[in-house]
Design the sequence.
């Protein structure tokens, strides 16, 4: 038997309540959601959000993330400096957690997004199963890259001793937030059904 | 045609058309082609409601009691989660800090309230269409709540700060961890799809 999808049979799936309807219907009678077989801008949205993320990845890693002021002396540190600091102070576990969350995960996510776009663009249906698997992985790990930003923000709040010691965020914090948010948006706007469509 | 539609399901990840499976409360059903979850039954509403109420109660001591006290020389600083919300209005990095507290603390709490407002009307016999809008909002927020990331980042921040100052952990932190654990439990047992499965 040949596999059939919703397009072949003229059906549409309500993405909210999972009801199957004929494709001529515009609104789901069960839950009042708008119906659409595919979002035609899905590919474009994913592509543009990924590009934004790639551009902001550079300032995020090169600019200082955190500025610690102790008695008037300012010490700036980038994400990578932070990881090195933990390695030097022998907190290997935290160092590895931060390395995975803020360097490995964003790069892995972007690589997968580009791979998904490639598979969709060139209709490599044989790779669809593999690509869907990777999509689920990046969807699951997506939010964990926010870890470092959270740490910096918490430290700013917790350490407010005026002139004695003070912590503030650097520009990289903003750039990095943009990277994480746009990769999450890129993942969210991608429709895995595009991988499986034959045309 | 109507009758035929009742007996099929469409996979939301790969759009494969399948015969509707015979489902019960014990088994899950996955798509044979892409392995997406198609049917799963969650916990009954009563359990979820009770867990949600427990988490809401834990939330208040968690944000009002001090999470930790820092000591540098003779200066002491006690932080509560409410203060982390308020301090941003004084300090410079308003945007990022508000955003982080928002997705780390406010959104998870708001989602618990959403669960309560979805399940309470259903418990009193309202139609599932009645909660459709709230349910959609809940599912949308599911990817954007970062309570678990927040929890780990508190641990990382504490380890980082231990090297800078003397640090005493307050009762609020334990309440906050309790709140987060109850919240995860609530959210993982609550299966939004159940609301549509019942026909």
Sequence:
């Amino acid at each position: 038997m040949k596999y059939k999808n919703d397009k072949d049979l003229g059906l549409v799936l309500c993405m909210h309540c999972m009801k199957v309807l004929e494709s001529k219907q515009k609104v789901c009678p069960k839950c009042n959601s708008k119906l659409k077989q595919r979002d035609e801008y899905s590919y474009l949205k994913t592509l543009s959000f990924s590009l934004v993320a790639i551009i902001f990845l550079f300032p995020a890693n090169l600019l200082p993330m955190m500025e610690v002021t102790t008695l008037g002396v300012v010490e700036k540190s980038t994400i990578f400096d932070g990881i090195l600091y933990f390695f030097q102070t022998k907190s290997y576990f935290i160092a590895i957690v931060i390395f995975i969350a803020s360097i490995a995960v964003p790069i892995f996510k972007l690589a997968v997004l580009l791979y998904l776009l490639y598979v969709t663009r060139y209709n490599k249906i044989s790779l669809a199963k593999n690509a869907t698997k990777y999509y689920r992985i990046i969807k699951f790990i997506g939010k964990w890259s926010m870890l470092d930003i959270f740490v910096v923000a918490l430290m700013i709040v917790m350490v407010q001793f005026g002139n004695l010691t003070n912590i503030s965020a650097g520009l990289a914090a903003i750039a990095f937030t943009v990277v994480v948010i746009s990769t999450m948006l890129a993942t969210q706007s991608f429709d895995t059904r595009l991988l499986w469509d034959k045309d | 045609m109507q009758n035929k539609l009742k007996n099929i399901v469409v996979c939301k990840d790969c759009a494969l058309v399948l015969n509707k499976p015979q489902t019960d409360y014990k088994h899950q059903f996955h798509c044979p082609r892409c392995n997406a979850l198609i049917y799963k039954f969650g916990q009954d509403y009563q359990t979820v409601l009770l867990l949600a109420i427990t988490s809401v109660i834990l939330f208040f001591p968690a944000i009002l009691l001090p999470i930790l006290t820092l000591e540098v020389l003779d200066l002491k600083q006690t932080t509560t989660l409410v203060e982390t919300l308020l301090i941003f209005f004084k300090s410079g990095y308003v945007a990022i800090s508000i955003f982080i507290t928002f997705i780390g603390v406010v959104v998870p709490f708001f989602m618990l309230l959403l669960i309560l407002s979805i399940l309470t009307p259903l418990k009193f016999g309202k139609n599932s269409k009645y909660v459709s809008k709230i349910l959609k909002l809940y599912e949308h927020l599911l990817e954007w709540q970062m309570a678990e990331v927040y929890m780990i980042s508190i641990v990382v921040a504490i380890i980082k700060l231990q090297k800078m100052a003397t640090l005493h952990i307050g009762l609020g932190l334990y309440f906050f961890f309790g709140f987060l654990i109850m919240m995860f439990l609530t959210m993982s047992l609550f299966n939004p799809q159940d609301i549509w499965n019942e026909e």
Q: What stands out?
A: Strands of chain B lie at 8-10, 17-19, 29-30, 37-39, 66-72, 75-80, 166-169. The helical segments of chain B are 2-6, 45-64, 81-87, 94-123, 132-142, 147-162, 171-189, 194-197. The two ends of chain B are 19 Å apart (CA to CA). Chain B has a mean pLDDT of 82.
